[in-house]
C-alpha cells in the first residue's frame, strides 16, 4: 500500500490521498460525458443507467463475482437498450428511461436481498452512496484507467458527437453514423457511471455529470468552454467536498455533490445580480 506523502490536513493521511486522487479523476471525466448529455437534454440518463448498474451490482454479489464487471455489463446493456427504444420510436426517451430506471432498481434490490439471505446485503451500500475513504490502491488505479479510457474515447469522437447532440437531423442528412455514435455515447456514459459508483455512489453520480456542466453553461460562451469549465468545477467540487467531509464527518459523495449544487446556486444568483456576469452565456 502506498504511504502518505506530506500534505496538509485533511489530506495528510494515506486513505485521504487515495480518496483525493479517485475523486478528482471522477470530477474530471463525469462533466466530460455530462457536457454531451446536458446539451442533448438527457441530464437524467445517468440516473437511470445508474439504477441499472445497481442491478448488476446485486447480480455480481449473488453470483459471487466482482460486482464491477456485472455492473458494467448491465449498465452498457441498459444504456444501449434506452437508445434502441428511443431510436426505434418504440417508446419516448423519458418513458424508456423510466422503464430501465424502475426495473433496474427493483432488480438490484431483489438480487441484493437474495445475496443477503432475504435482507439487503450491506456490501451494496458503498455502491449506492459511495465511499472513497475505503478505496484501495488498486481501486484508484482502476478509476484512473477507466477515466483515461472514457476521456480518450470522448476526445476521439468529440466532433461527431458534437454534431449529433447539437442537431441530430442535420447529422443524419450529412451522412454521419448517428445510431452508432448514440450507442457509443450511451456505452461511454455507462462506463463512467460504473467507474464512479464506488466514489460518489450510484444515486449521486448523475448529479456530478450535470451540475458542473449546468454551472459552466451560465458562464461559458461556447461548447468547448463549457466542457473545460465544467471539468474545472467538477474537479474543484471534488477537492472541496472531500476536504469538508473528514473534519465535519460527512458522506464524501454527498458533500461533493452539495458543493457542486452550491456553486450552481451561487453562480445563478450572481448572474442575475452582477452586471459583469449578465452578458455571459
Write structural notes for this entry:
- It is a single chain.
- Helix 1 packs antiparallel against helix 10 (223-248), helix 6 (137-166) packs antiparallel against helix 8 (178-196) and helix 9 packs parallel to helix 11.
- This protein has one domain: ABC transporter involved in vitamin B12 uptake, BtuC, CATH 1.10.3470.
- The protein is globular.
- Helix content is 77%, strand content 0%.
- With 281 residues, the chain is an all-alpha fold.
- The N and C termini lie far apart (46 Å).
- The protein is built from twelve helices and no strands.
- 48% of the residues are buried.
Write the layout of secondary structure elements.
Elements lengths: L13 H26 L5 H19 L3 H21 L5 H23 L9 H5 L7 H30 L1 H6 L4 H19 L8 H15 L3 H26 L3 H22 L1 H4 L3
Quickly describe the structure.
This protein is mostly helical and 281 residues long. It has helices spanning 14-39, 45-63, 67-87, 93-115, 125-129, 137-166, 168-173, 178-196, 205-219, 223-248, 252-273, 275-278. It is globular.
| CATH hierarchy class name | Mainly Alpha
Mean pLDDT: 84
* Proper CATH architecture: Orthogonal Bundle
Span of the ends, CA to CA: 46 Å
Query: Which sequence of SSEs, written as H and E, runs from N to C?
Result: HHHHHHHHHHHH
Strand content: under 5%
CATH superfamily: ABC transporter involved in vitamin B12 uptake, BtuC
Structural class: mainly alpha
CATH topology: ABC transporter involved in vitamin B12 uptake, BtuC
Amino acid at each position: 500500500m502506498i504511504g502518505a506523502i506530506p500534505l496538509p490536513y485533511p489530506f495528510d493521511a494515506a486513505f485521504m490521498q487515495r480518496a483525493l486522487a479517485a475523486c478528482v479523476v471522477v470530477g474530471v471525466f463525469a462533466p466530460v460525458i455530462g457536457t454531451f448529455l446536458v446539451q442533448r437534454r438527457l441530464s437524467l440518463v445517468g440516473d437511470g443507467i445508474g439504477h441499472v448498474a445497481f442491478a448488476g451490482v446485486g447480480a455480481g454479489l449473488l453470483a459471487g463475482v466482482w460486482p464491477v464487471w456485472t455492473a458494467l455489463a448491465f449498465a452498457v446493456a441498459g444504456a444501449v437498450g434506452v437508445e434502441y427504444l428511443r431510436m426505434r420510436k418504440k417508446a419516448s426517451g423519458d418513458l424508456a428511461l423510466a422503464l430501465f430506471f424502475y426495473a433496474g432498481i427493483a432488480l438490484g434490490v431483489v438480487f441484493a436481498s437474495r445475496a443477503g439471505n432475504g435482507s439487503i446485503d450491506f456490501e451494496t451500500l458503498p455502491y449506492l452512496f459511495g465511499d472513497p475513504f475505503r478505496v484501495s490502491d488498486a481501486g484508484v488505479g482502476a478509476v484512473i484507467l477507466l477515466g483515461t479510457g472514457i476521456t480518450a474515447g470522448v476526445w476521439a469522437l468529440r466532433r461527431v458527437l458534437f454534431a449529433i447532440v447539437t442537431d441530430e437531423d442535420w447529422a443524419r442528412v450529412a451522412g454521419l453514423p448517428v445510431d452508432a455514435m448514440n450507442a457509443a455515447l450511451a456505452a461511454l456514459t455507462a462506463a463512467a457511471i460504473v467507474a464512479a459508483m464506488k466514489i460518489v455512489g450510484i444515486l449521486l453520480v448523475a448529479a456530478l455529470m450535470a451540475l458542473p456542466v449546468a454551472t459552466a453553461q451560465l458562464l461559458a460562451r461556447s461548447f468547448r468552454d463549457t466542457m473545460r469549465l465544467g471539468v474545472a468545477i467538477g474537479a474543484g467540487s471534488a477537492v472541496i467536498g472531500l476536504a469538508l467531509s473528514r473534519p465535519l464527518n460527512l458522506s464524501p459523495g454527498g458533500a461533493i455533490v452539495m458543493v457542486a449544487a452550491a456553486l450552481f446556486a451561487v453562480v445563478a444568483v450572481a448572474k442575475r445580480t452582477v452586471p459583469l456576469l449578465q452578458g455571459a452565456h
